[in-house]
Amino acid sequence: MGTGRRVFKLSAMRSKADLRRTLRRSGSRHIRTFRMDAPHDADARISVRFCVGQDYGDTVKVRATWIAAIAALFLGTANASGPAYLPPLGEGGPTACPAHAGVYTFRSEIVQFGNGTAHIESAARRVGRECQSMVALHISSRGKPRVVDLPQDGTETLVDFSPDQSKLLLSRELEWRYPNEAHRSVLIASVSVETGDLRWWNVWDVLQWKDCDATVEAQGFLPNGTAVIRVRPSVMRPNRHPDCVSTPRLYAVDTVSGSATVLPDATTIQRNGNVARPRLQTCAADPDLVGVCFWLHGRMSYYNGGPSTRIWRIGTKRMLGVPSETVPETIAPHFNGFDDEVTGDFKVCPLTRRKPGVMQMVCVEAAKHVIYSKR
User: Which of 99, 237, 277, 350 could form a disulfide with 52 if both were Cys (CB 3.0 to 4.6 A apart)?
Assistant: First the structure.
């Protein structure tokens, strides 16, 4: 898997979002979906769904800067200065087209607050040499569903609902190429839960930035319903452009007028919504499966390295790698940390062929007779 030469500012990398952002931007065209999350402060797990044509069994060459970036996360966030970072509720976006005829689908986390829910769905269909794709935001309020088409030029993030449940804050991170990875790269929008109306604002225009780079993270809402973003110096080094800011800071953004004001660093942002269901991607219907699905008896656990989610086939020495997005929804709530283990019967579908001495990749379609335990 090729990557361009990239050097990241490790001192600026203080959240999982930083690592996810830098890895995605270093090789986004090679990745179908990417997820990195930390069940515990001292643990992190990464699962990567490689693009069509990438052999999961191949050795993945990870540059030293990537390894250093991961290590930087474990230096602790206590030394981070400025306002605290609050992670979003969910993330979605366009998915790569399958190599074979058929449809590949992905659904983000389903987030909820009161009577409202929201999630992002994406699909890509292979028809001959052509690829048809779509990305849409699904919102339901008081039982009334709405579908809002989304652009396919970046990754959309479900940040949070407003305190009065009337709005949903979205951010969109554009998939720019060198040398504009952190230049005019983030847009935000406040979506009406009732109507689905929204208007995208480029943060560079809102803050009247010109030729400069920044790391921008949408944080949520103030009690009065005003959107909040967190901006910092770019994590990309060397700089492609000068940094827009020298230190982290918070801004309140009026998504109607497109104006912004600086907030005190001590400003507290509360999460209003929560994740009702985890993200999910195609498994048994994946057009690129290399064989038929089958049942096995095994134990699912987290491991260091990639992929982090693995199934040991009990009674053998074989270990199967699993993209975390394919963990069944019935299991996901009980499988959150490195101490969690799930033993049972798993229906798995092969994503790569079995080779001696190479971990085979599978997705998990279903599970039964499961027993949850701790290490």
Answer: 99
3-state secondary structure 158-176: EEEECCCCCEEEEEEEECC
Does 22 fall in a domain?
no
Query: Would you say residue 342 lies in a domain?
Result: yes
Mean pLDDT of the chain: 81
If one counts every other C-beta atom within 10 angstroms of the C-beta of residue 264, the result is: 9
> Could you tell me how many residues make up the chain?
375
H-helix segments, the chain: 16-27, 64-73, 203-206
pLDDT tens digit sequence for 183-202: 999 999 999 998 999 999 99
* Distance (Å, whole) CA 68 – CA 62: 10
Q: Which domain holds residue 242?
A: 81-275
- If asked whether residues 309 and 366 sit together in one domain, one would say yes
Contacts of the segment 308-311: beta carbons below 8 A, 24+ positions apart: 308/45, 308/46, 308/47, 309/45, 309/47, 310/359, 311/346, 311/348, 311/362, 311/364
Task: Please tell me whether residues 312 and 194 are part of one structural domain.
Answer: no
Of 278, 275, 266, the residue nearest 364 (C-alpha): 278
Task: Answer yes or no: are the C-beta atoms of 355 and 370 closer than 8 Å.
Answer: no
Domain membership of residue 125 (yes or no) is yes
CA–CA dist 209, 47 (Å, integer): 35
Residues sharing a CB contact under 8 Å with residue 145, sequence separation 6 or more, in sequence order: 138, 139
Among 28-37, 154-163, 197-206, 298-307, the minimum mean pLDDT is found in 28-37
Same-domain status, 97 and 172: yes
Question: pLDDT of 3-55, one tens digit each?
Answer: 333 333 434 444 444 454 444 443 333 333 333 333 333 233 333 333 333 33
Contacts of 140 (CB under 8 A, 6+ apart): 116, 117, 118, 146
**What is the rounded CA–CA span in Å between residue 310 and residue 316?**
14
Residue finishing a domain among 224, 246, 275: 275
Q: Which of 133, 138, 170 is nearest to 155 (CA)?
A: 170
Same domain, 183 and 229: yes
